[in-house]
């Protein structure tokens, strides 16, 4: 069983079977206050409850699991390596541990402390670098030393298929779904979920959400070709500042209805609402979809939408930083 | 007024009917890390997800609903007054608003800002007073004299306690092979209601209370064999539990409660941090006291045989802005 070359409904359904009993089929929660503010019924998919604290575990586990199965004939000791601003590192570290594989993760120096701690607690090797430009070189070094297989956190098709399983679950969990909104960074979640949903219910709208200051997905869709900033934007939503990758771009271009951008204050407001009203611990990147759902631009587009699902992508946040993250 | 004078399985079951469709049947969650740390399977009842952010809404709604029904056509002229460290004020304010009834709250001046704001946001009027039992009682009487409002006791009123008891009925359905249930104790309303529900149906299930060491009136009362009350409120980080054990709860405690475990301030903060960081849920310090108890050495020593333990996370109303001060 080799790595899939592409992402289809079949590969996503296969991923669902691989994840069954390993990833959590996270609950969908609702909140009357947020319904009132949004002007419609919102259904929050709680991936902050996912193993390792974010949805990234799904894609990581699918990819590592398939790698192990394809490696079985050789019985070679497996190493995997990945680069990540945080949550994919956590997901990969845990997936590797559960599959009996050694993991090496490359993270930026300024990644949240809690994410570094989680990676270490799962027994992965953590390599920190000051600049993202140094990541490819570092990954090569790890590969030379250990023979590690590089698994991209957003561009690997098995990873994307794993993320797509959220789309399958949403269609089962939310009756009469009109639209789904989720944060977009590298685009793995958006690519996988849009493929799952459009393959089964093409009438359901699929939207991405990103910070205004990191609006690569928006510009890409507008221009009709992938656009990435030459620098790494700085946003409170540290998990979604990366631009869409070449693989995820093709799926997003073909399957996504639109991307909404939100200000830093809108993200902070959404954080406050979800923490205070829903009693959920979420990280800033995790509520970018919520911010979009509450925004004027979404309201203008969503006329007639009654039931909108919003993916809360993760909850790995430094508690000491929480008060300052909420300050507007 | 048509309030029952005692708390029985029947009054709890009646409360469940009244609450059906109005309170949230909160989920029970599990966590591998907490199981590992406690050495047993924990089932956490998420009352932080309850309406108004804590279980207090259950008792408040039951009481207001029964009052409105027994007052018939004059119900819309009803005014209510209550004294509360915080969460009962939030629950009662919300229950009153839902029934179209006016509510007046009396709260200590060191109560969390978010709890005051929530009571106000549901249309209640708010009077602050010194954090002492007699001050609260005095101020409640003043409001009562000025407005003719009916006093709703969060600790002594049987239909409030019966409302809280509905958590016991839910736990019996939600937790397989439950050996024990642990919950925080302040004035003892939850402990009374839940213990009546559970002991009436499955008397072999252990019912445990959990208290801060610095606010240990329930533990002291059990030890002394008579009700003990602090004259001035203790100052535990678990602000919701700084009140004294009530008279009515005390009459049930000796027969229905198997033990009370006390925990240090650090144990409470550690438990709160664990639930925030591992379970990604917002709970307030008081809400973490049951978790702190099951993780404690004394629980392992005195209740170590319990394998499947339900723990009530009583609420999640905490001022996130001052989290660093709390933790």
Automatic annotation (TrEMBL), chain B:
The protein's Enzyme Commission number: 4.3.1.17
Annotated ranges, domain Tryptophan synthase beta chain-like PALP: 20-315
Pfam families, per database record: PALP
Cofactor(s) needed by this chain: Ca(2+); Mn(2+); pyridoxal 5'-phosphate; Mg(2+)
Top-rank taxon: Eukaryota
Keyword annotations from UniProtKB, A to Z: Magnesium, Pyridoxal phosphate
A GO MF term: serine racemase activity
Family (UniProt): Belongs to the serine/threonine dehydratase family.
Protein name, entry field: L-serine ammonia-lyase
């Amino acid at each position: 069983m080799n790595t899939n070359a592409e992402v289809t409904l079949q590969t996503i359904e296969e991923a669902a079977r691989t994840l069954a009993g390993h990833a959590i089929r996270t609950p969908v929660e609702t909140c009357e206050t947020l319904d009132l503010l949004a002007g419609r019924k919102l259904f929050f998919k709680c991936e902050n409850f996912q193993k390792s604290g974010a949805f990234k575990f799904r894609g990581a586990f699918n990819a590592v699991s398939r790698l192990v199965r394809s490696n079985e004939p050789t019985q070679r000791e497996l190493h995997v390596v990945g680069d990540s601003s945080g949550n994919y590192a956590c997901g990969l570290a845990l997936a590797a541990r559960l599959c009996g594989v050694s993991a090496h993760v490359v993270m930026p120096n300024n990644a949240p402390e809690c994410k570094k701690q989680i990676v270490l607690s799962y027994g992965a090797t953590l390599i920190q670098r000051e600049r993202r430009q140094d990541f490819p070189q570092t990954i090569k070094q790890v590969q030379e030393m250990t023979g590690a297989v590089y698994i991209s956190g957003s561009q690997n098709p098995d990873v994307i298929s794993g993320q797509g399983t959220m789309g399958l679950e949403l269609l089962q969990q939310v009756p009469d779904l009109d639209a789904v909104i989720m944060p977009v960074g590298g685009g793995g979640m958006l690519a996988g979920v849009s493929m799952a949903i459009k393959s089964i219910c093409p009438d359901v709208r699929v939207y991405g959400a990103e910070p205004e200051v990191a609006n690569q997905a928006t510009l890409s869709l507008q221009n009709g070709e992938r656009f990435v900033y030459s620098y790494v934007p700085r946003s409170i939503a540290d998990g979604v500042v990366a631009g869409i990758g070449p693989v995820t771009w093709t799926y997003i271009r073909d399957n996504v209805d639109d991307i909404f951008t939100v200000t830093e204050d809108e993200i902070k407001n959404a954080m406050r609402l979800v923490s205070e009203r829903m009693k959920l611990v979420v990280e800033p990147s995790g509520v970018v979809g919520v911010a979009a759902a509450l925004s004027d631009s979404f309201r203008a587009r969503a006329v007639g939408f009654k039931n909108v699902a919003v993916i809360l992508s993760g909850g790995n946040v430094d508690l000491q930083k929480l008060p300052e993250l909420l300050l507007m | 007024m048509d309030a029952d004078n005692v708390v029985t399985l029947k009054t709890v079951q009646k409360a469940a009917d009244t609450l059906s469709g109005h309170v949230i049947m909160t989920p029970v969650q599990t966590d591998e890390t907490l199981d590992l740390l406690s050495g047993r399977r924990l089932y956490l009842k998420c009352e932080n997800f309850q309406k108004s952010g804590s279980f207090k809404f259950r008792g408040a709604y039951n009481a207001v609903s029964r009052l409105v029904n027994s007052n018939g056509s004059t119900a819309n002229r009803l005014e209510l007054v209550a004294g509360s460290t915080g969460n009962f004020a939030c629950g009662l304010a919300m229950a009153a608003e839902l029934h179209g009834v006016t509510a007046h709250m009396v709260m200590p001046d060191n109560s969390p800002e978010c709890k005051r704001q929530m009571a106000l946001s549901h249309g209640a009027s708010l009077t602050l007073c010194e954090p002492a039992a007699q001050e609260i009682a005095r101020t409640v009487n003043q409001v009562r004299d000025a407005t003719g409002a009916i006093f709703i006791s969060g600790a002594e009123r049987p239909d409030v306690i019966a409302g809280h008891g509905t958590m016991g009925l839910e736990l019996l359905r939600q937790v397989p092979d439950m050996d024990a249930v642990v919950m925080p104790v302040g004035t003892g309303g939850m402990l009374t209601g839940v213990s009546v529900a559970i002991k009436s149906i499955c008397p072999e299930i252990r019912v445990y209370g959990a208290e801060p060491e610095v606010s240990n009136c329930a533990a002291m009362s059990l030890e002394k064999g008579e009700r003990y009350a602090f004259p001035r409120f203790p100052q535990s980080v678990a602000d919701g539990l700084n009140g004294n054990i009530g008279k009515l709860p005390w009459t049930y405690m000796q027969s229905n409660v198997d033990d009370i475990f006390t925990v240090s301030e650090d144990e409470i903060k550690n438990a709160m941090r664990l639930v925030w960081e591992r379970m990604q849920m917002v709970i307030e310090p008081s809400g973490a006291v049951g978790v702190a108890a099951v993780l404690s050495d004394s629980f392992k020593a005195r209740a170590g045989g319990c394998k499947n333990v339900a723990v009530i996370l009583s609420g999640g109303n905490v001022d996130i802005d001052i989290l660093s001060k709390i933790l």
